[in-house]
Amino acid sequence: MTILNRAGRTVISRPYFGDAAEAGAARRFISHSLGAAHPCRDDAVQLAGELISESLRHAVACGDLAGYTIAVTTTRDTCRVVLSAQSRCACWTRPALGRGVHLVSQFTPLWGAMTTDHGTTVWFEVTRSPHEPRRSQPSRSDDGAHAGP
């Protein structure tokens, strides 16, 4: 796991082997990274879960590597999730072809996808609703993994 603390934002990333049984752990990682009080937590976890499932499904269908890394960037009001998959099978990154990307494209205009020789990356950003009151700063349990800058 990698953790970067920058002024006003935190970036946390973690790799996964691509086993379908890890999808729940990846969703919990996102949830824990954001903390219970973050206004974007539920939306980010749901959308990322859809992308993870789709990435795994298409990696298997294409006979490609299924491993991926999840990176979560947070500020007080926003969350950006980046899924970087080892698979270069980019067919799932177009909204018309994949349920996960379709849901992301319907939910937020802030998303994108790119395929390179190293794999496929899909990202999205969700923000606090302007009608939602600000909550206190997200809290995380101290498991020794969080260090200062």
Provide the fold topology.
Blueprint (H helix, E strand, L loop, with lengths): L1 E5 L2 E8 L6 H12 L6 H22 L5 E7 L3 E8 L13 H9 L3 E6 L2 E9 L22
Antiparallel strand pairs: 1-2, 2-3, 3-4, 4-6, 5-6
Helix pairs in contact: 1-2, 2-3
Can you put this structure into words, describing what you see?
This is Histidine kinase/HSP90-like ATPase domain-containing protein. It comes from Acrocarpospora phusangensis. InterPro entries: HATPase_C_sf. Residues 128-149 are annotated as: Disordered. By secondary structure, this protein is of the alpha+beta class. The protein has a single domain, classed as Heat Shock Protein 90, CATH 3.30.565. Helix content is 29%, strand content 29%. A six-stranded antiparallel β-sheet has the order 1-2-3-4-6-5, with helices on one face. A hairpin with a 2-residue loop joins strand 5 and strand 6. It is globular, with a radius of gyration of 15 Å.
Q: Quick recap of the structure?
A:
The protein has a single domain (9-127), classed as Heat Shock Protein 90 (2-Layer Sandwich). It has three helices and six strands.
Helical stretch count?
3
* Low-confidence spans: 135-149
- Quaternary structure annotation: single chain
Query: What is the string of helix and strand elements?
Result: EEHHEEHEE
> What name does CATH use for the topology?
Heat Shock Protein 90
Radius of gyration: 15 Å
The largest beta-sheet arranges its strands as 1-2-3-4-6-5
CATH architecture: 2-Layer Sandwich
- Strand fraction band? 25-35%
Percentage of helical residues?
25-40%
* Arithmetic mean of pLDDT: 82
Q: What is the name of the CATH superfamily?
A: Histidine kinase-like ATPase, C-terminal domain
Structural class: alpha+beta
Major sheet summary line: 6 strands, antiparallel
Number of domains: 1
Instruction: Give the overall shape.
Output: globular
**Terminal CA distance:** 15 Å
CATH class category name: Alpha Beta
Using DSSP, what is the number of strands? 6
